[in-house]
């Protein structure tokens, strides 16, 4: 069964610090991996999308990395801000253009404290 | 703002009742997806419509149904509601021609079944 596992489940950091969130997946075949940010009670917002041939992609203070060989991805957040407090969801697509086959992780809940 | 709108924002009803959730996709998007997100659970894909036609089904109960109208808005109908149906329901849309088929999520409808 295709799975996406994220760690840690939750994380608390101080404002200004960096952090790294992990995602391991078993989805195969693999087309692309996405990271979403979901504020409490709101819809997810896309941060990055990477194909299997890409190993890093940045979006401002967010940098995602992908190792397709080990089936691992990470999301690094630098100089965290209070507004980074949210759930970060890793999503894997097995086939290009097949959104209905997306497999979602349960997310990492990040809390940034002042 | 993703450009996807959902109404109502909140819905409180009793077991056994029927409700309708509405979604308007981003302008020009032909695909609409419905997701359920229960407490502490990842997003679960329910159903996809493309230009008025059902494209794919996920973990959608027989008590649930959906449709997409000629103006591309979509409705998700939930009937014979049970306590366990309490969840956030998200609609997402994606556009034709996007190789990643990036999805844009609406703000969600929070359904509470008492």
Note down, in words, how this protein is organized:
The complex is a heterodimer of chains A (114) and B (114). Chain A is an all-beta fold. Chain A contains no helices and eleven strands. In chain A, strands 2, 4, 5, 9, 10 and 11 form a six-stranded mixed sheet that branches. The mean pLDDT of chain A is 91. By secondary structure, chain B is mainly β. In chain B, strands 2, 4, 5, 6, 9, 10 and 11 form a seven-stranded mixed sheet that branches. At the A-B interface, strand 5 of A face strand 5, strand 9 and strand 10 of B.
Largest sheet of chain B: 7 strands, mixed
- The overall pLDDT of chain B, averaged over residues, is 92
**Cα gyration radius of chain B (Å):** 13 Å
- Please state the oligomeric state of the protein chains shown: heterodimer
Strand percent estimate of chain A: over 45%
Q: Count the beta strands of chain B.
A: 11
Structural class by sheet pairing and helices of chain A? mainly beta
Order of helices and strands of chain B: EEEEEEEEEEE
Instruction: Characterize the biggest β-sheet of chain A.
Output: 6 strands, mixed
Regions with little confidence, pLDDT below 50 for 5+ residues of chain A: none
Mean pLDDT of chain A: 91
Q: How far apart lie the N and C ends of chain B?
A: 31 Å
Proportion of beta-strand residues of chain B: over 45%
Structural class based on helices, strands and sheet pairing of chain B = mainly beta
Which outline of chain B best applies?
A: globular
């Amino acid at each position: 069964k295709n799975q996406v596992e994220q760690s840690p489940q939750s994380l608390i950091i101080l404002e200004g610090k960096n952090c790294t969130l992990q995602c391991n997946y078993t989805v195969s075949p693999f087309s692309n991996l996405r990271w979403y940010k979901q504020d409490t009670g709101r819809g997810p917002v896309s941060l990055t999308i990477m194909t299997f041939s890409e190993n890093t992609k940045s979006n401002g203070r967010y940098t995602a990395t992908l190792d397709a060989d080990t089936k691992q991805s990470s999301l690094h957040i630098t100089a965290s801000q209070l507004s980074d407090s949210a759930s970060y969801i890793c999503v894997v697509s097995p086939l290009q253009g097949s959104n209905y086959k997306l497999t979602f992780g349960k997310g990492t809940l990040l809390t940034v404290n002042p | 703002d993703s450009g996807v709108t959902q109404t109502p924002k909140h819905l409180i009803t009793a077991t056994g009742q029927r409700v309708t959730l509405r979604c308007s996709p981003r302008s020009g998007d032909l695909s609409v997806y419905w997701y359920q997100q229960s407490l502490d659970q990842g997003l679960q894909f329910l159903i996809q419509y493309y230009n008025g036609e059902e494209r794919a089904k996920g973990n959608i109960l027989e008590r649930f149904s959906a449709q997409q109208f000629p103006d591309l808005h979509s409705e998700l109908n939930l009937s014979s509601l049970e306590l366990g149906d309490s969840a956030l329901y998200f609609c997402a849309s994606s556009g034709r021609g996007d190789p990643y088929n990036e999805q844009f999520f609406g703000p969600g409808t929070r359904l509470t079944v008492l």
